[in-house]
Amino acid sequence: MSLTLEQVRRVAHLARIEISDVEAHRTLGHLNEIFALIEEMQAVDTQGIGPMAHAQDVAQRLRADLVTESDQLAQRAAFQAIAPETEGGLYLVPKVIE
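Below the sequence we write its predicted structure tokens.
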């Protein structure tokens, strides 16, 4: 698949981007290179290959989920002191869905 210069101008118009003729020609070349790469990648036989979450097989190191702050009730009270309305430790907000 390749784009035409008119299609690049149309996409620029839809995106409300002002584009000169030189930029349009340059963008057309870049986009057609991207489409050529996509076509090349789609031609590769991936039958029997499972999807990967990441290109490298790495594991995320996780820290222990521990409480590190003391006196949380006092902190919550301080944070909620500036809120317009609170009740039972929760922030009250106006109803927005009927």
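The chain has a mean pLDDT of 90.
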